[in-house]
Structure formats: C-alpha cells, structure tokens
C-alpha cells in the first residue's frame, strides 16, 4: 500500500511540476490543436486536424485550439471557432505581431510555452506546409519524437501512417513521453463542419510575457498567390492534372481551359513542373500536394508511384493516356486510351459552360 501511495504521489508531481514533464506519459489529458486561420475562420486543413483530435477514444479528453496572429481577423477567427464547433472546449489566442506570419521559430516557441502551461497529452496540426514547418521544431524543443502524416487513429497511442510513397501503411505505437505530437493528412479526415447548436467555448489570452525574445533566425520576406478564381488545389472538389505529355507551357493551357469549364483546380506532375510548364505550387504527389477530390482527371500522366501517392484517395479517377500500359490505368476508375490533344478539345466542345 505504501508503494502504491508513493507511486500516486510521484504521478501527481510529474503532472504539476514542469521539471518532471517529459518523463511521465499522461494516460489521460487534453489535446491541443495548432490551427491556421484566414479571413476570420479556421482553414480547412486545420479543421481536418481538429476532426482527427476528436477521434481520440479518451472520453475525459478536452480539445483546445491555439490561434495566433494579430489584428481583428485573429479575434474574429477565435469567436467563430468558439461558437461554431462543439468539440472545442477552449480557444487560446496569442495576439502579437511576432505571429503575423507563420515563421517556425516564434510559432514553435509559442507552442512550447503553451504546452508547459497546459500539460497536453497530444498536440495536433495539419500535415501541410504550416504544420510541416512548425511541428518538427516543437518536437525538438519538447524532446519528443513526432508522428507525421497520420491517416488513421486506432487509440490514444496507436496511429496509421503511409510509407514507401503510400504503397504500404504502417501502424505505429507511441511509447514516448508526453506530449504525443501528430501531423494529420487532411485528406484522410473530413474537415469538421460547423454547428449552429454549439455551446460557446471559452476564449483565453495566452500570457506572452515569458516568451523568449531571441526569435530572429529567419525573416519574413513576401508572399505571392495565383490571384485567380480557381479553387484551391488542396481542397477542390474537382482536379484536372496534366503531365509531361503536354510538351509545353502553351499546350498546358488546354488543361487550364478544361479546369475553367469544370470549375476545377489545376494540378501537374513533377515532370511537368520540372519542365517549366507550370509553377511548382501546382504539383501533386509525394513531394507536392496531397489531394482527394471527388473527381480527379489525369491527362498525359503516366502514373509513377510518387504521383499516385498524392492522389490515390480521390473518389473517382479518370485517366487519358495514349499508352495502354501506363500505370495510371491500374488505379483509374475510368480510362481512355487516346491522344489528349484530341480528347480535351472534344470535351471543351461538348461540356456546357460553367454557371
């Protein structure tokens, strides 16, 4: 009995004393979701991370969302999150110009600070450029090993993630110290939908008075966007992708014209990007963006495993290629062996105009 009582006291101190954190794995606790926001709302990849956080089986776990930045948009996003998603129990707001841009150093220091004050058992973020930039540095600061690109959650410590360019799935059991840091493949977890019946969560300001000021290892320079009305590639319902077979940037305009008529996003293979047909932010694949639209149309795409890793979760895959043995036909729901320079003009002619 004395030994059991002593063990209980050690566990209590491990939870309450920052010096002991990292040496005791919490069996129950709360979850932190590090989220992006834009235009006063949480961005869809972060809503997918939030949906993943709700998959943890621990009934006693609560979910907090961390939002950082400056200006009215930040507070609008916090209010929207607190009132729209019943799974959120608390919204943490870090209001400072340091977080105006998603630089790894200040954001990682912020998450480190919030973790030591909150003692979370799990920290979630989307496995997009935002999460991939910040979470490895967070893991290093907390001296834990992150689990990246998670596609499935079995229990609080067991997760599924792809390996070998998505050709195999690996089940990983986390046995390290708290917190368990996860980045989530957003295409595997549908974004959480807002609810009108939500009970409003509390909103708390993060105390930044102890935040380390030595953050100047990187500098924000600029940000550019496509500036058109096409859907975002990562969240589009329809994606039209072109490969190296288009032969030139001028010919790639056929893909753009078809996408315009379908109200779709434009994608490209790495070969097309490397050849200079389109910018690299349109690349789909293992080293590009991971997409899972309702309809994925591939023109002149051979189907290399690196490309398939980025689109194999699409609901319906349509492939057009003049090579009947192209690997893309092995994953396509509908395939047409033909010349894309004949097929696309015919589609443009027969498809109705976008309303």
UniProtKB/TrEMBL annotation:
<dbReference type="InterPro" id="IPR033947">
    <property type="entry name" value="ETF_alpha_N"/>
</dbReference>
<comment type="subunit">
    <text>Heterodimer of an alpha and a beta subunit.</text>
</comment>
<comment type="function">
    <text>The electron transfer flavoprotein serves as a specific electron acceptor for several dehydrogenases, including five acyl-CoA dehydrogenases, glutaryl-CoA and sarcosine dehydrogenase. It transfers the electrons to the main mitochondrial respiratory chain via ETF-ubiquinone oxidoreductase (ETF dehydrogenase).</text>
</comment>
<comment type="similarity">
    <text>Belongs to the ETF alpha-subunit/FixB family.</text>
</comment>
<feature type="domain" description="Electron transfer flavoprotein alpha/beta-subunit N-terminal">
    <location>
        <begin position="31"/>
        <end position="215"/>
    </location>
</feature>
<dbReference type="InterPro" id="IPR014729">
    <property type="entry name" value="Rossmann-like_a/b/a_fold"/>
</dbReference>
<dbReference type="InterPro" id="IPR029035">
    <property type="entry name" value="DHS-like_NAD/FAD-binding_dom"/>
</dbReference>
<keyword id="KW-0813">Transport</keyword>
<keyword id="KW-0496">Mitochondrion</keyword>
<dbReference type="Pfam" id="PF00766">
    <property type="entry name" value="ETF_alpha"/>
</dbReference>
<feature type="binding site">
    <location>
        <position position="244"/>
    </location>
    <ligand>
        <name>FAD</name>
    </ligand>
</feature>
<dbReference type="GO" id="GO:0009055">
    <property type="term" value="F:electron transfer activity"/>
</dbReference>
<dbReference type="GO" id="GO:0005759">
    <property type="term" value="C:mitochondrial matrix"/>
</dbReference>
<dbReference type="Pfam" id="PF01012">
    <property type="entry name" value="ETF"/>
</dbReference>
<dbReference type="InterPro" id="IPR014731">
    <property type="entry name" value="ETF_asu_C"/>
</dbReference>
<keyword id="KW-0274">FAD</keyword>
<dbReference type="GO" id="GO:0050660">
    <property type="term" value="F:flavin adenine dinucleotide binding"/>
</dbReference>
<dbReference type="InterPro" id="IPR001308">
    <property type="entry name" value="ETF_a/FixB"/>
</dbReference>
<feature type="binding site">
    <location>
        <begin position="300"/>
        <end position="307"/>
    </location>
    <ligand>
        <name>FAD</name>
    </ligand>
</feature>
<keyword id="KW-0809">Transit peptide</keyword>
<protein>
    <recommendedName>
        <fullName>Electron transfer flavoprotein subunit alpha</fullName>
    </recommendedName>
</protein>
<dbReference type="InterPro" id="IPR014730">
    <property type="entry name" value="ETF_a/b_N"/>
</dbReference>
<keyword id="KW-0249">Electron transport</keyword>
<keyword id="KW-0285">Flavoprotein</keyword>
<dbReference type="GO" id="GO:0033539">
    <property type="term" value="P:fatty acid beta-oxidation using acyl-CoA dehydrogenase"/>
</dbReference>
<feature type="binding site">
    <location>
        <begin position="269"/>
        <end position="270"/>
    </location>
    <ligand>
        <name>FAD</name>
    </ligand>
</feature>
<feature type="binding site">
    <location>
        <begin position="283"/>
        <end position="287"/>
    </location>
    <ligand>
        <name>FAD</name>
    </ligand>
</feature>
<feature type="binding site">
    <location>
        <position position="321"/>
    </location>
    <ligand>
        <name>FAD</name>
    </ligand>
</feature>
<dbReference type="InterPro" id="IPR018206">
    <property type="entry name" value="ETF_asu_C_CS"/>
</dbReference>
